[in-house]
Design a protein that fits this description.
This protein is mainly alpha-helical. It has nine helices and no strands.
């Protein structure tokens, strides 16, 4: 059995490129995912088990969100559980690489859980706000539209990757340095930032503003990325 230290060192050497990744994923989620992957691999966990742990952590966080009245402690618990689910989502693929157990079924399961998460988190914001807060009825439309935007971004990015796999390889170019400006600009679209926003769930006016700003930023980012991806595919042979 590989030790935690050896597994972690191997993952550090095989880390993904930083280009096109937000600061949160680069400096928080990926390092945390590597630690979790090394620990879980060292005790014999399979990639699919890690994926299911991610789903359990996310489900637990959303259950707390919907079932409990807003408060500081509730918000922190929700944020931590959702962030843990996100980190475990990063860990499952790394466990697959460490164990050599990559499989089409595992990749499918990972994407199904991710898709469910995209829909569930905003749906639960809608339900929790309706049950436990006095927000304006009109505001409740924001989680529903946010749900659509998140699904579009997830589906668009996933389909782009799958389609590009079937196309002829692009001519190799010299890799550019990761852009810090882009990494900052992508922060609002990072699921980890959404997770952290629940820290202020107990302060309804603050959460409403924070969530609404994330919604507006995601709408703008989605418009830019979807247009960019369509143009890129249109230019391919």
């Amino acid at each position: 059995m590989t030790t935690f230290k050896l597994a972690y060192a191997e993952l550090v050497q095989a880390q993904k490129p930083k280009k096109g990744v937000s600061l949160y994923s680069r400096h928080v989620n990926r390092p945390l995912g590597r630690m979790l992957a090394a620990a879980l691999h060292s005790v014999g966990a399979s990639p699919n088990q890690v994926t299911l742990l991610s789903a359990i952590a996310t489900t637990a966080g959303l259950a707390v969100l919907v079932s409990q009245r807003p408060g500081l402690a509730v918000g922190i618990v929700v944020a931590l559980l959702l962030a843990l689910g996100f980190a475990l989502d990063s860990a499952d693929g790394q466990v697959a690489r460490l164990s050599g157990r990559q499989s089409p079924a595992g990749e499918w399961l990972d994407h199904v859980v991710d898709a469910a998460k995209m829909v569930a988190v905003h749906g639960c914001v809608f339900v929790a706000a309706w049950l436990h807060t006095s927000v304006e009825t009109l505001w409740l439309s924001i989680p529903l539209v946010f749900q659509v935007i998140s699904t579009l971004l997830f589906a668009g990015g996933t389909l782009l990757e799958l389609i590009e796999r079937s196309l002829p390889a692009r001519r190799e170019v010299v890799p550019s340095r990761p852009s810090t400006v882009r990494a900052v600009g992508l922060l609002p679209a990072d699921y980890g930032v959404l997770c952290l926003s629940f820290v202020v769930w107990g302060f309804t006016p603050v959460f409403v503003v924070a969530y609404s700003l994330l919604f507006l930023a995601n709408a703008a980012i989605a418009a830019m990325l979807l247009t960019k991806w369509f143009r890129e595919l249109s230019a391919r042979p």
